[in-house]
Amino acid sequence: MKRLLIPLLTALALPTAVIADDHSFESWKESHFENYPFECVPTGSTPEYTRCASEDLLKSDWELKKELNNDELWEQWRKVRGRVCYHYQNKFFGQGTVKPLMTISCEQRLNSEIKRYCITGEDKQCG
């Protein structure tokens, strides 16, 4: 199972230079799963619900990329966010099979915090 989750995590963690106008979200999303044999099944096995979480993260990334409108900044964000989440998840989960899912969840949480505090204006302290 670990061999199947590593390519998924790697694909999501690597910065992907994509110009939003050149691709639809669906084609961009599917390009991340070319070598991942599992479909999203929320109540399925670990690789299946990990795919669901990954799809949610990709949607959040796509929206943030469009909001930032700066490919270089977006790629830097994804790289640093991935490294920070990997560091803490490695500290807490070592090499367990839940680690990729926890890393994806961490990245999604950081995206949602950026949206909540800086984009939607929910928190008036940002900017």
Annotation field: number of helices: 5
Please identify the structural class as seen in this structure: mainly alpha
Assembly of the depicted chains: single chain
Elements, N to C (H/E): HHHHH
> Strand fraction band?
under 5%
Number of strand segments: 0
| Shape, per Cα inertia axes | globular
Amino-to-carboxy terminus distance: 43 Å
* Rg calc: 15 Å
Sheet with most strands: none
Low-confidence stretches: 4-11, 13-21
The percent range for helix content is: 55-70%
Mean pLDDT level:
80
Describe this structure in words.
- There is one protein chain.
- With 127 residues, this protein is mostly helical.
- It is built from 5 helices and no strands.
- The longest helix has 23 residues.
Which descriptors would you attach to this protein?
single chain; 127 residues; mainly alpha; globular
Blueprint (SSEs and pairs):
Blueprint: H1 2-13, H2 25-32, H3 46-68, H4 71-93, H5 99-119
Helix pairs in contact: 1-3, 1-5, 3-4, 3-5, 4-5
Quick take:
The protein has 127 residues and is mainly alpha-helical. It is 69% helix and 0% strand. Helix 4 packs across helix 5.
